């Protein structure tokens, strides 16, 4: 229990460090920023949108949801069996294991499915879990993101720069 608490504290402390952009992306246009309010899918399909949303999640201490989702997306693009095994084990250790300070919140049914699939990992081992986390972010974090100072400031800045050009 002490180890878990120490790991939890360490993970919270690292969240205070500046976060590097997880993806390279161009500055979003005002139209793109406004589009993020129209649908969560638009936000998640945009590299810039994912970066801004990740920054917001970080303020809510739930950045691991985006990191897990991105790791699953990367795994899906993998074809090499050895790389799939390696990445699947890393994802499991980083986000699924109850010993991980970055553990994502999943129901027991999904955990059981993952534990079975980990016997022979594939690029789709975490599909159910990824969908559950995507849904959680959509229903829980996304509405707060749209009302956040981070999004409102970006929207205002993007609108201002588009009216100047």
TrEMBL record:
Membrane topology reported for the UniProt record: Lipid-anchor
Location in the cell: Cytoplasm; Membrane; Nucleus
Transmembrane segments: none
UniProt cross-references to SMART domains, sorted A to Z: RGS (SM00315)
A GO CC term assigned to this protein in UniProt: cytoplasm
Xref: Gene3D superfamilies: 1.10.196.10, Regulator of G-protein Signalling 4, domain 2
One Pfam family named in its UniProt record: RGS
UniProt-listed CDD domains: RGS_RGS19
UniProt cross-references to SUPFAM superfamilies, sorted A to Z: Regulator of G-protein signaling, RGS (SSF48097)
The RGS domain, residue ranges: 39-155
UniProt KW keywords: Cytoplasm, Glycoprotein, Lipoprotein, Membrane, Nucleus, Palmitate, Signal transduction inhibitor, Ubl conjugation
The keyword Lipoprotein is assigned to this record: yes
Listed GO biological process terms: G protein-coupled receptor signaling pathway; negative regulation of signal transduction
Function as written in the Swiss-Prot or TrEMBL entry: Inhibits signal transduction by increasing the GTPase activity of G protein alpha subunits thereby driving them into their inactive GDP-bound form. Binds selectively to G(z)-alpha and G(alpha)-i2 subunits, accelerates their GTPase activity and regulates their signaling activities. The G(z)-alpha activity is inhibited by the phosphorylation and palmitoylation of the G-protein. Negatively regulates mu-opioid receptor-mediated activation of the G-proteins.
PANTHER family hit by this protein: REGULATOR OF G PROTEIN SIGNALING (PTHR10845), REGULATOR OF G-PROTEIN SIGNALING 19 (PTHR10845:SF145)
Subunit structure, interactors included: Forms a complex with G(alpha)z/i2 subunits and mu-opioid receptors; the formation of this complex results in mu-opioid receptor desensitization. Interacts with OPRM1.
Protein name: Regulator of G-protein signaling 20
Annotated organism of origin: Nothoprocta ornata
Lineage: Eukaryota, Metazoa, Chordata, Craniata, Vertebrata
């Amino acid at each position: 229990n002490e180890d878990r608490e120490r790991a939890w504290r360490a993970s919270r402390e690292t969240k205070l460090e500046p976060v590097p952009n997880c993806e390279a992306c161009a500055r979003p246009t005002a139209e793109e920023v406004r589009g993020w309010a129209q649908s969560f899918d638009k936000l998640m399909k945009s590299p810039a949108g994912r970066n801004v949303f990740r920054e917001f999640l970080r303020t809510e201490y739930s950045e691991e949801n985006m990191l897990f989702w991105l790791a699953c997306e990367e795994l899906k693009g993998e074809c090499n069996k050895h790389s799939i095994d390696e990445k699947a084990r890393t994802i499991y250790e980083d986000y699924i294991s109850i010993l991980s300070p970055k553990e994502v919140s999943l129901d027991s049914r999904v955990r059981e499915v993952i534990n079975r699939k980990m016997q022979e990992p594939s690029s789709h081992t975490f599909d159910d879990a990824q969908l559950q986390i995507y849904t959680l972010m959509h229903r829980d974090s996304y509405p707060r993101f749209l009302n956040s100072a981070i999004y409102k400031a970006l929207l205002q800045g993007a609108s201002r720069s588009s009216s100047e050009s």
